[in-house]
Amino acid sequence: MKTYLLVLFMVCLGCSAFAQDIWNKTPYETKSLANDGIKEVYVETSGGSISVSGASGEAARVEVYVHGNGMGELSREEIKKRLDNDYDVLVTVSNHELHAKAKRKHENGINWDWRRQLSISFKIFVPKQVNTNLETSGGSIHLDNLSGNEKFGTSGGSLHVDALTGTIKGETSGGSIEVSNSGDNINLETSGGSIHASNCNGKIHLETSGGSLHLQDLKGSINANTSGGSVQASSIEGELITGTSGGSVNLTQLSCALEASTSGGSMNVEMNHVGKYIKLDDSGGHIDLRLPAKQGYDLNLSANRISPSSSVSDFTGEWDKDHVKGSMNGGGIPVNVDASGHLNISFN
Predict the structure, then answer these.
(1) 305 to 203, 265, 288, 302, 319: CA distances (angstroms)
(2) CA distance 212 to 127
(3) Is 89 in contact with 83 (CB distance < 8 Å)?
(4) Tally of CB atoms within 10 A around 342
(5) How far apart are CA 52 and CA 24, in angstroms?
(6) DSSP state, residue 74
(7) Contact 64, 50 (CB under 8 A)
(8) Are 177 and 212 within 8 A, CB to CB?
(9) Using CA atoms in the order 303, 309, 314, 319, what is the torsion angle rounded to 10 degrees?
């Protein structure tokens, strides 16, 4: 299993480096979109990356990048020959819709030689107010400075999202996800990598089956889960629902309602301000919980052993070594904790 994960990591790392290298090359072809007023972007390619940018100051255009599957650089003449023989590459504009598509002419060809395969990538510059529908089975996807409905997916690369607003829905089966400076409705999923999210707001759904979660400076309704890694979060406001089946949970500088769980590690939770509720469930380790002293709580705590690391005042109820049920500071916010190990709770 460790060998498989290492190979997967190296493949994803290689794809990311390759994607960055693509855009540093000279495009094979460039098509101007200056007079087309693009509002919709549809892109499909089976072997390359996709980048769509609404950055101001850039002339609206499509750049097509083509590279061979081998180690050496192909000449322009050889690229043209392979494209003519083996691929259909179409870039069209109609009714303010851009359609860019690259696919093999003989998808099910028995005698297909992988050494002749080409990577065909699209880099697109458009106005900020556009909707996108992007799909690739062999590369990464990058979007920035767009506002609209953005839908995108890849089976073999990473997702990079920055400065998007609107509805954002993306998924990858084989790479990591990075999202920053974005809102308002974010839904991103990966089956094979980690997720990094920073400075985002709104309704946020993040899910990975094979990596860790890194969350920072998020505001809104956040639901983030992983089946195979740790969870790290800081500076969260609103509501956070998070969990992992295979790692530890470290949450700091939180000002939110919170539900967190882990089946495979310990949990550290530090609250600056508690929202409507706290619910913690740890079946794989101990919990360290720090709460603001001046808020009112209704405590329902269960653990192998419960230890207050600071003095507890204005508490009414039952406080036993393995169970606590009662009110603090007159009661108010429900705090429910279930730990298989030691619960260390403090009020500061």
Answers:
(1) 37, 17, 12, 8, 11
(2) 34
(3) yes
(4) 15
(5) 16
(6) P
(7) no
(8) no
(9) 30
Which of 167, 196, 201 lies closest to 179, judged by CA? 196
Over residues 136-175, the pLDDT tens digits come to 988 999 999 999 999 999 998 999 999 999 999 999 998 9
Distances from the Cα of 343 to the Cαs of 160, 281, 284, in angstroms?
Answer: 38, 11, 12
Q: Render pLDDT for 28-70 as a digit per residue (tens, 0 to 9).
A: 999 999 999 999 999 999 879 999 999 788 999 999 999 887 6
The residues facing 312 across adjacent strands are none
For residues 199 and 186, give the distance between their C-alpha atoms in angstroms, rounded to a whole number. Answer: 12
* Residues 6+ away with beta carbon under 8 Å from 257: 238, 239, 240, 274, 275, 276, 277, 278
Amino acid in the structure at residue 147:
S
List of long-range contacts for 100-103, beta carbons under 8 Å, 24+ apart: 100/41, 100/42, 100/43, 100/44, 100/45, 100/62, 100/64, 100/124, 101/42, 101/43, 101/44, 101/45, 102/44, 102/45, 102/46, 102/47, 102/48, 103/44, 103/45, 103/46
Q: Using one digit for the tens of pLDDT, what is the confidence trace for 293-337?
A: 999 999 999 999 999 866 677 899 999 999 999 999 999 999 999
The number of residues making up the chain comes to 348
In the structure encoding, which two tokens stand for residue 236, read together?
A: 């969260």
Residue 293: how many CA atoms within 13 Å on its side-chain side? 10
Residue 5 confidence (pLDDT): 38
Q: Is the pLDDT of residue 119 over 50?
A: yes
Nearest CA to 257 among 221, 310, 218?
Answer: 221
